[in-house]
Specification:
The complex is a heterodimer. Chain A is an all-beta fold. Helices cover 0% and strands 57% of the residues of chain A. Chain B is 0% helix and 56% strand. The chains are: A mainly beta, B mainly beta.
Chain lengths: 111, 114
């Protein structure tokens, strides 16, 4: 079983749609959780951290369910500029961070 | 603009060449990382430095040699690479011990081995 699993997509949605991505992780010792976004041929960029209480940043909402080892990202009112690959990332901290990446979910937002 | 700076942006080298990739950050982070990313794959961890000491080597071949001259700089020395080593090499940094502190990535060096 992969440490972090994501649906690779692509998710094709029209502008203005709401889209949700899911991610599961296998290591119950994982301590921190993030969503990164990566544009084609660019570096990963932090989109948001994910907290147990859930957190929202504008059109983006992240949820964490530690009992189910499940993370989600909801994007409302999709924009063309949201087209990218979304990477689910978990860490195991042993004095330093070791990031474990999911394979990413590709989102294509069309006019 | 990224706060982690990598040079060069692109590098083409032969299998017998020796070259180095450089990474610099001025965020006061004490953990720095090298990743390798192939097309359509997620980044794969290669090395972790914590307080300028090598903490993790993910069984990387010895033709890749990391170096951390000081807390702001991280190098990756390359020698006798193979065509399959062609990839995007990403540097990242984070606060040490900050479990909820994310890693910040540079924009990478795109390496091609002829």
């Amino acid at each position: 079983r992969k440490e972090v699993e994501q649906d690779p997509g692509p998710f094709n949605v029209p502008e203005g749609a709401t889209v949700a991505f899911n991610c599961t992780y296998s290591n119950s010792a994982s301590q921190s959780f993030f969503w990164y976004r990566q544009d084609c041929r660019k570096e990963p960029k932090l989109l948001m951290s994910v907290y147990s209480s859930g957190n929202e940043d504008g059109r983006f909402t992240a949820q964490l369910n530690r009992a189910s080892q499940y993370i989600s990202l909801l994007i409302r009112d999709s924009k063309l500029s949201d087209s990218a690959t979304y990477l689910c990332v978990v860490t195991v901290n042993t004095g330093f961070q070791k990031l474990v990446f999911g394979t990413g979910t590709r989102l294509l937002v069309s006019p | 603009d990224t706060e982690v700076t990598q040079t060069p942006k692109h590098l083409v080298m032969g299998m017998t060449n020796k070259k180095s990739l450089k990474c610099e950050q001025h965020m006061g982070h004490r953990a720095m990382y090298w990743y390798k990313q192939k097309a359509k794959k997620p980044p794969e961890l290669m090395f972790v430095y914590s307080y300028e000491k090598l903490s993790i080597n993910e069984s990387v071949p010895s033709r890749f040699s990391p170096e951390c001259p000081n807390s702001s700089l991280l190098n990756l020395h390359l020698h006798a690479l193979q065509p399959e080593d062609s990839a995007l090499y990403l540097c990242a940094s984070s606060q040490v011990g900050g479990g909820d502190q994310p890693q910040h990535f540079g924009d990478g060096t795109r390496l091609s081995i002829l």
